[in-house]
Design a protein that fits this description.
Chain lengths: ~525, ~300
């Protein structure tokens, strides 16, 4: 008998805007010792299907329409709250996507770890603490005795996810549900966490449901794969079958979206093309609680015209700070940045203004970087009005042309940001950046917040626009696969220091620095 | 943490100085004086009185001598209660006002907190609508209306509770405390509802549920602390409001607390008593704002470590 078997599950959300059928009649099962991956884009119902059987979706507006979820002979969808609570966190445990928000900031890590033992296993606090410390060691948390009393905010993202994993495992569940457990983490950390989950699954012989939008991530992990689209299962089978011989076109699309291989038309004439931006011995310091923190330490590089330079590093490596220092969005502490041989660092705000038109930025989070109270028209027209590029009827034409450029229907022009999906918003943000006809754009992780299929479209759009408008770009990313697909040259940053630079393919084939090798290894595709 | 408290105390000094200066000169420039009454006082007596209290000296000299006395903790003699110092009067009235204030705060926290949390657990339910409407009425209704209303219902119609006094008859502290606390209970209810609603939608509450914790543990242990932060931050201003609000309550219920002295002092132009009460209350309010800030910081581990000193 299967450990968990879901039969004909259907879940809907009844909202003011109508009924959303989030999960439509799906069935699947998981055995002990097996890893099942549920793959799909955001909104495909993959998380809802797992949350609903544990009673973790808010009802109303959610409603379980039909189905059974048999676990250990109990129908989870049709049992008492007390019974369900006994199973939750005890026999079935969960790991969530964002370790930054999923731990309670007001309780110590240790307190949160021992809770399942105290409530499910009725252990004394001392026994529970001993077990928690053993488990913290097992999931790779250093000095567990000291860290037991630490607060979540004192931990990095990767460490918090280890705490989440320990918390899920502590009551020795038979089934672990991991909902995008690595999406919010850096690539190198991603690999460590995936390895840890695989390791634990083997050692304890438990069932794992792994929810992800990225087929690449589940490749090395899953025994079985389910592909979901719009609340339905469109394909299922062993990982081998689904990944090597996808039947449904949606699965094929997902597979094709995984960035792989090199840029189609690399840009190789660096020697004779002209230097656009020259960064020399750039230093940027931040003052944190009276201490000086050196975010960027003596970094020098050039950006040639019409090239895309990739800037790679983990979070906290100072890569965003470099981009912002070049655009004078933060003040550098030393060194020099020239644009067309013109020094930027000693210019005041007034003197920078005419240059701003030529140098633009695209941000990571398309949800936060668009003004929610401005229509798309206003968002796109504002920079053009500000820099006196167009007005009147000409302005309307320019905005509409911009919409065409970034692949948005002209009819959307009067809509507000919340009416768009993440990918569409990033198109708007890109449109805003190219509205002033710039020469140079800093793109700070523009695709990191997006699903793989959308990511692919946005990368294609960026490549197309860079060619069409002959732009130069500093493309900041933590994902080497993305950088390889898009960039001509790449520089690698670690702890604010430039450790390696060169042509993307050269670096890919023959990385010189250990850190670059780590980064490359972490990209498993 | 200690350093934070120390800095805040230092910052309080200029604030107090401004309060003292403004009050001192405003009171003096207001028409009338401490010895103006129904009957004309004999000019020679008036002169002697003014000389006795140094009122014949230039204003600026009086100001500095007042400051000098104040630094030594001497608030001066009362003009209207001969032979009694302002220190004595405050000493006599404040314990009563403080007791009333504390009961009022407790009423506010108990009623408001429970109502707010219960509303937040079932938003947009009948329970929520009823308690939030009650809170709205509580906020809108002034104490000088609510007080007499409660007296009428519980004191006169039902004859359950005494209608006035403080500590003379059993149960006479109930109505004043309720009346004074009611407005603040309403604010606390709204704040704690908002705070809890926000917290309960957080991801870590979902984590706590996913761990299979009993619902009361999820609410009380994982939710309440963060949910109550807005209320804690409000305690300082609430205390200030309660102290000044207690003047009305003390008049309505015939309680001889600090508020009564304060109001009478203002009518009588009892310069030193007005000054004394003002300075004393200002210092208390500053102290309580500091206290609620420290408490809020203490409840938030991130702030706590920023202010120095782990746990």
């Amino acid at each position: 008998m299967a450990l968990l078997s879901i039969e004909n599950l259907a879940v809907s959300f009844y909202t003011r805007n109508g009924i959303t059928r989030a999960v439509r009649d799906i069935s699947f099962s998981v055995e002990l010792g097996e890893t099942l991956a549920i793959v799909g884009e955001s909104g495909s119902g993959k998380s809802v299907s797992c949350y609903s059987m544990l009673g973790l979706i808010p009802c109303p507006p959610g409603k379980i329409e039909s189905g059974k979820a048999l676990f250990d002979g109990v129908d989870l969808l049709n049992c008492s709250d007390t019974k369900l609570r006994e199973i939750r966190g005890n026999k079935i445990a969960m790991i969530f996507q964002d370790p930054m928000t999923c731990l309670n900031p007001y309780l110590t890590v240790g307190e949160q770890l021992v809770e399942p033992l105290i409530y499910h296993k009725k252990l004394s606090r001392a026994e529970a603490k001993k077990k928690a410390i053993d488990l913290m060691t097992e999931v790779g948390i250093r000095t567990p005795e000291e860290n037991f009393d630490a607060w979540p905010h004192e931990f990095s993202g990767g460490m918090r996810q280890r705490v989440m994993i320990a918390m899920a495992l502590i009551a020795e569940p038979q089934l672990l549900i991991a909902d995008e457990p690595t999406t919010a983490l850096d690539v190198t950390i991603q690999k460590q966490i995936l390895d840890l989950i695989a390791d634990i699954q083997k050692k304890r012989n438990i069932g794992v449901i792994f929810i992800s939008h990225d087929l690449g991530v589940v490749k090395n992990l899953a025994d079985k794969v389910i592909v979901m689209k719009a609340g339905q299962i469109v394909e299922q089978g062993t990982a081998q079958e689904v990944l090597s011989n996808p039947k449904h076109e949606y699965t094929q699309k997902l597979l094709a979206a995984i960035p792989s291989g090199a840029k189609d038309t690399p840009h190789h004439n660096n020697s004779d093309s002209q230097i656009l931006v020259q960064v020399k011995n750039l230093v940027t310091d931040f003052k944190v609680k009276g201490n000086v923190f050196r975010a960027v330490n003596d970094v020098s590089f050039n950006i040639y015209s019409k090239e895309i330079l990739g800037l790679v590093g983990e979070s906290g490596s100072g890569k965003s700070t470099i981009g912002r220092s070049i655009l004078r969005l933060v003040n550098a502490s030393g060194g020099s940045v020239t644009y067309h041989s013109e020094e930027l660092l000693n210019k005041n705000a007034q003197q920078m203004k005419p240059l701003r038109r030529k140098m633009q930025m695209i941000f990571q989070d398309p949800y936060a970087s668009l003004n929610p109270r401005m229509t798309i028209y206003d968002t796109l027209a504002e920079p053009m009005k500000l820099h006196g590029i167009a007005k009147g009827a000409e302005l309307n034409q320019a905005v509409l042309k911009l919409m065409d450029d970034v692949g948005l229907a002209r009819a959307f022009v009067r809509k507000y940001p919340h009416e768009f999906s993440g990918g569409q918003r990033q198109r708007i943000a890109i449109g805003r950046a190219i509205a002033t006809k710039p020469e140079f754009i800093v793109a700070d992780e523009p695709v990191s917040a997006l699903d793989v299929t959308i990511q692919k479209q946005i990368l294609e759009l960026i490549g197309y626009l860079v060619d069409k408008h002959e732009l130069s770009m500093l493309f900041i990313s933590h994902d080497l696969a993305v950088v390889r697909k898009l960039c001509d040259r790449v520089i690698v940053l670690k702890h604010g220091v430039l450790v390696e630079s060169g042509e993307v393919e050269t670096l890919w084939q023959n990385p010189q620095h250990d850190y670059t090798r780590d980064l490359l290894q972490a990209v498993m595709h | 943490m200690l350093r934070f408290i120390f800095t805040r105390l230092l910052q309080a000094i200029p604030v107090l100085l401004v309060v003292i200066t403004v009050t001192f000169f405003l009171v003096r420039f207001a028409p009338g004086g401490p010895f103006d009454g129904e009957r004309k006082v004999d000019p020679s007596v008036l002169k002697a009185l003014e000389a006795q209290y140094n009122l014949d000296q230039p204003l600026i000299t009086q100001y500095f001598s007042y400051l000098g006395d104040l630094i030594q903790g001497d608030l001066g003699p009362s003009f209207k209660y001969p032979g009694r110092s302002v220190n004595e009067l405050i000493g006599a009235g404040f314990p009563i006002t403080a007791e009333l204030g504390i009961y009022a705060i407790l009423v506010a926290l108990a009623i408001g907190g429970c109502a707010g949390v219960l509303s937040a657990l079932k938003p947009n339910s009948t329970r929520d609508y009823v308690s939030m409407s009650a809170a709205m009425i509580g906020i809108c209704m002034p104490a000088f209306l609510l007080g007499p209303l409660l007296i009428l219902i519980f004191g006169i119609w039902l004859e359950w509770l005494p209608v006035s006094g403080w500590g003379d008859l059993p149960g006479d502290k109930v109505l004043p405390s309720l009346t004074l606390g009611a407005v603040y209970a309403a604010y606390v209810a709204r704040l704690s509802r908002g705070g809890m609603l926000e917290v309960l939608s957080q991801d870590y509450i979902r984590t706590a549920r996913a761990k299979g914790l009993p619902e009361h543990v999820v609410i009380l242990k994982h939710g309440l602390r963060a949910g109550m932060l807005p209320v804690v931050a409000y305690l300082g201003p609430a205390f200030a409001g309660i102290l000044s609000g207690s003047f009305v309550i003390e008049s309505v219920f015939q309680i001889h607390g600090l508020g009564r002295f304060y109001v009478l002092a203002a009518f009588n132009r009892d310069y030193t008593l007005i000054m004394g009460c003002t300075v004393f209350l200002a210092a208390l309010i500053i102290l309580f704002n500091l206290f609620s800030d420290v408490l809020a910081a203490y409840l938030n581990p991130r702030l706590r470590s920023q202010l120095g000193g782990k746990s």
